Amino acid sequence: MTCIVGITDGRTVTVGGDSAGSDGWHVAVRSDSKVFQVGPYLMGFTTSYRMGQLLRYSLDVGEPDTWDVDRFMATTFIDAVRECLSRGGYARTTDGQEQGGQFLVGIHGRLYVVGDDYQIGHTISGYAAVGSGYLVALGSLHSTAKSALDSHARAVMALEAAAELTEGVRPPFTVVQSE
User: Fold this and answer.
1) pLDDT per residue over 54-87, tens digit each?
2) Distance between CA atoms of 125 and 145, rounded to whole angstroms?
3) To bridge 22 with a disulfide, which of 1, 51, 153, 174 should be the other Cys (CB 3.0-4.6 Å)?
4) What InterPro entries has UniProt attached to this entry (predicted)?
């Protein structure tokens, strides 16, 4: 239960997230953030705090060393994520398929959605959301796409909408932005 939002204009990436931790029956507001920066990467996770802790503190991957950032993310970056999650005891194999969790990654003005099956993607809309509040957040991000609001304000508005309309999404919100 969570909501992570990301916005990019092709140069700057903004990632925001809520503070709810839930086991399906109980929601607690946590002080450890779901949104952070590691080196040049902005990240925001859902699925599991353990996965987020591994990404934040154990992931070892350098900056893209090629002009083909998509290729780097789909190969070198994802290989490092898989190794990190496996080494940390988090990755699971179900019916022969290895699975991790969902998170957003911003790098070099690009915003990526990493899926449970480690596929990467990015939309042409310039925004994305994951977690239980993602549909509400996407509606908010869509409705403000052509507004004069900056990306920080748009991220907060999307998270506020998700907190208002989705069980398991709670403030305070953390928003980070690439330089």
Assistant:
1) 999 999 998 887 789 999 999 999 999 999 999 9
2) 9
3) 1
4) Ntn_hydrolases_N
